Hints:
This protein has helices at residues 13-24, 31-41, 44-55, 61-72, 90-103, 117-127, 134-148, 150-157, 170-180; strands at residues 2-6, 28-30, 81-84, 109-114, 161-165. By secondary structure, the protein is α/β, with parallel strands linked by helices. Bound molecules: adenosine-5'-diphosphate.
Amino acid sequence: xxxxxxxxxxxxxxxxxxxxxxxxxxxxxxxxxxxxxxxxxxxxxxxxxxxxxxxxxxxxxxxxxxxxxxxxxxxxxxxxxxxxxxxxxxxxxxxxxxxxxxxxxxxxxxxxxxxxxxxxxxxxxxxxxxxxxxxxxxxxxxxxxxxxxxxxxxxxxxxxxxxxxxxxxxxxxxxxxxxxxxx
Length: 183
Ligand code: ADP
């Protein structure tokens, strides 16, 4: 299984990834988690990423693509992976396609969790992570619209895009995702 869980911040990608990991035994790869770990570890990469993260801007493509390249080369991705929060820009999507083409393991499906903006803001305020204040949330939604939304068309043209209703209970949404998984 090689899929991208796609969606704005707060649409439940992390929650749903956990369920997929538990059922299918492939790792979740979240660039947000990897970046937060780098910040917590005080690495050079973490220092470079922190300001963008605090502002709700995208961390530079170079940094994130390098991180993903390393992660995808780890042996636990042998049976596949769930990408969560990556790619987030056209440059990232193109780099990913190239990387996976070299490995002979292309993305099979991109599943978009669709949630109303007002619901998103409420969920993130309830979550209360360091970057979950109202200003940063609005900015992240704007960044999603400007830089990440174009990927919908990119993957639609590849015939890999599916949208799933991300409103409802965790289990209802999970059932919809399973229906959208590649055969
Ligand atoms: P959310 O989905 O709630 O925005 P994430 O954990 O996915 O949370 O991301 C948190 C922050 O990490 C983003 O606001 C951004 O600064 C940075 N980030 C995560 N993934 C990427 C990526 N693929 N490209 C650039 N920046 C990223």
